[in-house]
Specification:
The chain starts with a helix and ends in an 11-residue tail after the last strand. 16% of the residues lie in helices and 30% in strands. With 394 residues, it is α+β, with helices and mostly antiparallel strands. The protein has 2 domains: 48 residues, no CATH class; 319 residues, Jelly Rolls. Bound molecules: fe (ii) ion (2 copies). One fe (ii) ion binds next to strand 17. The site of one fe (ii) ion (FE2) has 4 residues, from strand 6.
């Protein structure tokens, strides 16, 4: 009986009067038929894909285009909450496949942000988590919950959920950085909320900076010795990393120490930033990594059901995503959507290439649906399948 229904022709002319009348009554009752018809064979609804799928496309934003536009934004909009001012002066990177959403991937939003010398972006807080990657400026800083982290190009600063934060620039040149936030995910869940009323924390509308209650860069004094953590402090929130900032010099020396290892066949020498107290990902929704592609290194292709935003920090390379080749160099940003075959190569035979990346892997793992396929040199594919606890490959 079901087969007969599914294989019925879909055209209006072939529908009986009863079927047409039935459809009208269903639609008038705020419902829609949960079946799709095809003239020849079974066709699932669009929300029943037989392969992981989504509208996000592979895309690269080249710094040669983005850089001049974000620097110019200081001429067209001020910074603050007054007329002609933006509360954050950002250009949002929009995935062409996800427009009109403000989204780079299914789950993540990204923007580049400018703070000119002497400016302060007023304190605010939000339920979304942010990871920030510094591109330009020697005098930039971010304050999070009473602690200021001084930043230089290549550094990273984290922003936990619902933590007051303001950004400023005490230097002589523009402070430019890239933000990744889990806005699309939290919006979908109905949990994305902002609080712009900075007077709650600064006490005065004229003062946009929160008071500092801890020594500058204290989290790095306490927590950036790999595998060694203090026992005289403890975090009140176990789901958020107490280490807010990472120095590029530390990241590079960590990668360099591993450069003679074989590394991952798909990612070269790759390291994950984690919560130094718990060992889990730096945020409930984000995994953040750095990877070194040695001169001339080419990785093997794999695909997985988490999406990744990459930030090129050093060198130049290319990433082939299905049939699309994304060429990248310093400060370029690119996206590998979920379930797309991808492989990386360092285009130089003399210099290293370094990528940062942020993915939504922790979410996929929390729901027990991590899946990955790897291709070996002969083209054979190894598949984890839909197992809750996937094996970790060497
Ligand atoms: Fe923010
Ligand atoms: Fe990957």
């Amino acid at each position: 009986m079901m087969d007969n229904v599914i294989k019925m022709a879909p055209s209006e002319s072939e529908l009986s009067k009863h079927q047409q009348n039935y459809a009208q009554r269903v639609h008038d009752s705020d419902m829609i038929e949960g079946w799709w018809w095809d003239s020849t064979e079974f066709r699932p609804r669009p929300d029943q894909p037989v392969e992981p799928s989504g509208p996000a496309v592979p895309h690269v934003w080249n710094w040669s285009t983005v850089g001049p536009l974000i620097h110019e934004s200081g001429e067209v909009v001020g910074l603050g909450q007054g007329p002609g001012e933006a509360e954050r002066r950002v250009l949002v990177l929009r995935n062409p496949g996800l427009s009109p959403q403000y989204a780079m991937t299914n789950t993540f939003f990204g923007d580049v942000q400018l703070i000119e010398p002497g400016e302060v972006a007023p304190s605010h807080r939000h339920t979304t988590t942010a990871a920030r990657f510094v591109f330009e400026g020697m005098g930039g800083w971010t304050s999070v919950e009473g602690e200021r982290v001084d930043l230089q190009p290549g550094d990273i600063v984290m922003n936990p959920q619902w933590a007051w934060h303001d950004h400023g620039n005490d230097g002589d040149d523009n402070f430019v950085f890239f933000d990744v936030l889990d806005i699309p995910l939290l919006t979908h869940l109905g949990t994305a909320v902002w609080d712009f009323d900075y007077v709650q924390v600064t006490g005065d509308k004229a003062n946009k900076k929160q008071p500092l209650t801890r020594p500058n860069n204290q989290c790095m004094s306490l927590f950036d010795s790999s595998g060694i953590v203090p026992r005289f402090v403890s975090s009140s929130r176990t789901d958020q990393s107490p280490l807010l900032g990472y120095r590029y010099t530390t990241v590079r020396s960590t990668l360099d120490k591993m450069r003679d290892e074989k590394g991952s066949p798909n990612d070269g020498i790759i390291v994950e930033f984690n919560n130094p107290e718990s060992g889990i990902s730096i945020a409930p929704t984000m995994s953040m990594c750095a990877q070194l592609l040695r001169p001339g290194e080419k990785t093997l292709s794999h695909r997985h059901n988490w999406s990744t935003i990459y930030i090129a920090i050093d060198g130049r390379g290319s990433t082939v995503v299905d049939d699309t080749t994304l060429e990248w160099e310093k400060n370029d940003i690119f996206v590998v959507p979920s379930w797309r075959w991808h492989k990386h190569s360092n285009r130089s035979n003399e210099t290293d290439a370094v990528l940062y990346s942020v993915s939504d892997l922790p979410i996929i793992e929390k729901i027990g649906l991590r899946r990955e396929q790897q291709q070996n040199e002969s083209g054979d594919i190894k598949d984890t399948g839909w197992t809750p606890n996937c094996p970790v490959w060497e």
